[in-house]
Every structure is written in C-alpha cells, then in structure tokens.
Amino acid sequence: MFNNNFLWGGAIAANQCEGAYLEDGKGLSIQDIMPNGIVGAISEEPIEDNLKLVGIDFYHKYKEDIKLFADMGFKVLRFSIAWSRIFPKGDELEPNEKGLEFYENVIDECLKYGIEPLITLSHYETPLHLAKVYDGWRDRRLIEFFENYCRVVFERYRGKVKYWLTFNEINSVLHFPLMGAGILTPKDKLTKQDLYQAAHHELVASALAVKLAHEIMPNAKVGCMVLGVVNYPMTPNPDDMITSMERDRDLMFFTDIHVRGKYPSYTKKLFKDLGISIKMEDGDEEILRNTVDFISFSYYMSKCTAKDINKYEKGRGNLTSGVKNPYLKESEWGWQIDPQGLRYICNYFYDRYQKPLFVVENGLGAMDKLVEVNGEKIVLDDYRIEYLNDHLVELGKAIEDGVEVMGYTSWGCIDLVSASTAELKKRYGFIYVDRNDDGTGSLERYKKKSFYWYKEVIKSNGENLK
C-alpha cells in the first residue's frame, strides 16, 4: 500500500510554534498583530494576549522537539521559515544572519536524525512592514522582495533541503486576504479585482520561486500548497451540481495555474462575470510556465454545496464552510469528519494532473486532558488515533487506486497555537505541550498515546492500520 520511500512525518508553522517574536533581529509579521487568529480584530501593536508571541518556544526547544520527532521515526518534517526572521521588514537588500543561522541549525538537527526538511517559504506570515507600507500582495513590488528572499534561502540551504513549498494554502487569499496575502485593507473594502490581482502577484512569485529553485538546486522538488476541500452537491438537482463545479474551480484555479502554467479557459467567463481584468506585465505568462514538481494540500473536512444555501443548515470549518452534511460526524469545533473525502480529493487531483501528491496537513484539533497513568503523564487520545487511522486507511486506498502519493505530514505534530482561533486548547499534536490559553504552563513536553501509535504506523509502514 505505502511504498518503502513513503515520507511519514509531521508539520508545524513558524508563527504558531517558534515564539521569540523579536529575538535575534526578527521583525514583526502580520501574525504578531492577530491575537485572535482570523476570528477577531487586529491590534495596533503586539499585545501579551497574543499566544503566538511565545508559541511553544520551539525557537529555544527545537533540539528537544526534533529528537522527539526522531523517536517517532519521522522521515520528513514540514516547517516554515518566517520571512521576517530573514528580512525583518521584507524589503531590505541584505538578510539577517542570525535568522539564517537559526534555520540552518534546525535543518542540520533534522538531517542528524535522517529527517528530510520540507520547507514552506510563506506560511501566513507576511512581514508587517510589507502589509503596512504596500498593503501586502496587492502591490506588485512584493514579487521582487519575495524573489530576493527565496534566492537568499535557496543559496544558503542548497544541498541540504530537497523539498520546498511556496505559499501555504495559497487559495486562502480569496477568503482571508490578511492571513493569506498580508492585505490590511478590510475584506469588505476589497473588490474581486483586488483579490484576484493579489492572487496573480502571488502566483507569479510562486512560479519565480520554482524557476529559481530549479536553477540554484537542480535536484530540488518544489510544490504548490492549497487548502483542499471536497465539495459535494447537496442534492442531485443540476443547479447544485453546477454550484459544486464552480466551488471546485475556486480551488482548481490555483492548481491549474501552478501545474499547467497558464490561466484556465474557464476564467474568461468568470472574470467577465465578475468584471475583472488581470493586469499582467510583459513576461508574466512566460514566468507562469515554470510549473511545480508536485501538488501538496491540507485536508481536514469536506462540505456540501447548494445553489440556495439558505435552505440548509450551515456547517463550520477552518477557512471555508458550506452546507452541513447530515451523514458526517463533527469535531469539537464543528469540522465535519470525512476520511473518504481524502481518498476522493487524491483521486480528483491525480486524475486531473497526473502529478505526485503530498498530504502536508491533516489532523484533529481537540481539547486534550493530561492525566497520570502508572506514574507517567499522558493524554489518552484514542479519538485522535481513530481520526488519523481512518484517514490513513483512505489514503492507502487512494494509492491502491493508482494515485502517486509522496508522503503524509500530520498537522501540528506537537501542540501549537491554532491559526484560525489563536487558542492553545485546540490541540493537534502527538506531543502535549504544557501551556494554556491564559499563558500559564511549564512548556514541558509529554508524549500522548497517539505518539506511540504513530511510531508504530511509521515503523510498520502503515501495516498496523485497521
């Protein structure tokens, strides 16, 4: 089912785990003024209530944490570079050496244990200066700044890092422009033209990163990364089917350009209907032809779609939501649990593109309770084991269907601060971190029951899945 080269591992993001938000020359990022994640107002300056300012202190505890990942048997660790650690404002010409040294140390620590680094270049972490001065990716000049950042890190880490991702969940720019593109202008003040133009700038920057990576590191593999959501029509009514097709295109717009190297034909009608005219500069179309080596995506849930969504109960989700599916259970945060949706989306992507896939986020956020069993502190998270087991079984079925899957990195392999709600009580990890929403806690790490389960999954190469 899973081949011998399958990359088992976990995923984290700089802004959710590192802390040390101003240490060693780091500049502020948009996350430092988002104390409530995507659900609340931004602050003028960083405030103590923002749990991300400390995170889980991965900045100082990375050696301890990577050793724990190695104990589980990780083959790969997905993590992100905070752009503002390398270029504190984002638009400087010269990088911050201390920032480069930190990530080099993280990379070397991974390699010491035989763990392949999988690095995300931009994970919801636009430097705050770029947001304030340029309104983020609305301004085309960010392409040049991002290209400079990419060149610096590619040249520094070439020979050590084989796998790269450009923008985390790049399709989120249309739904959450601050998180996805560093745009400080409120969404209700933005037009569809504004959003798609910002998306164009990111897509050009992503293609430039692919081009640079292939020039500087010929053996590197670069992927796009999208928020993967399966859209089921609520009924067999053809209106609902067409709506589902249109919602699929909201996602496939980004993968089509990344994989095929050009704007898809359906955008002609879409842009005409929305009154959009993408402003391209000479050379943009040529740049976009630098296509990715693989497609990576997050998958947490599916949703139902309908032409008239007001007729149905609305579901809840991470960054997108639709009509509630009556056939599915929900997590504590109302995310609908659909393991078969993972098999479906893998087949959908592979049928469409015939490109290797990498599942780089999947997991269950839950309010874990630390208990003592036989003198050991542990979390008995059988619910997480069930969730992950069921999804991995379906991923195995997708592979049996003929889909080429490179690997799987469970999201939040160690507890960290939630991106959507900026909470710590919403835990995903195999490792419990003693820190609470009020900022208290020792930051001690404890292995959960799922730690030992996932270790056996990796050791058996998935043979122990039920």
From TrEMBL:
Cell cycle as UniProt keyword: no
Molecular function GO labels: beta-glucosidase activity
Location of the active site: 361
Keywords, ordered alphabetically: Glycosidase, Hydrolase
Coiled coil regions in record: none
Recorded GO CC terms: cytosol
Family note: Belongs to the glycosyl hydrolase 1 family.
Pfam family, one: Glyco_hydro_1
Name of the molecule in the record: Glycoside hydrolase family 1
GO biological process, any: carbohydrate catabolic process
InterPro entries named in the record: GH, GH_1_N_CS, Glyco_hydro_1, Glyco_hydro_1_AS
Organism lineage string: Bacteria, Bacillati, Bacillota, Clostridia, Eubacteriales
